[in-house]
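Provenance

Sequences were taken from public entries as deposited. Structures were produced by running a predictor on each sequence independently, with no templates supplied. The record for VOC family protein from Streptomyces endocoffeicus is shown for reference.
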Amino acid sequence: MIGRLYTVVIDCPDPGELAGFYEKLLSLSRQEDTGDFVVLQNAAGAPVVAFQRVDDFRAPRWTDSARPQQMHIDVMVTDLDTAETQVLALGATLLDGSDKPIGYRVYEDPVGHPFCLITPEGA
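Predicted structure for VOC family protein:
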């Protein structure tokens, strides 16, 4: 095992507004709200879904490859360097500008979907 699913992050134009919808839909509560980033948690206090502001957001359109879905997965790991070696061996690519010593790093999967490796310091 490299890590565990930590949260799913959804791009959107207004994180507070979209988070309000999912709070009601999924019976979740706000764990964090910076205005540009909102995290919803479950009853146990674990993060479940997060929303991040994206400038010039273009809504996805179902079955339209020109307007794909916009979200990424955060994977909790204990050591970024060890996990990085493992995901690179699986075919991931470290994205430019995301080589952080602690906290998080951003990669893309073998077909280009972004995902983050994060440590407790980055959560």
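Residues 2 and 102 are 16 Å apart (CA to CA).
The two ends are 19 Å apart (CA to CA).
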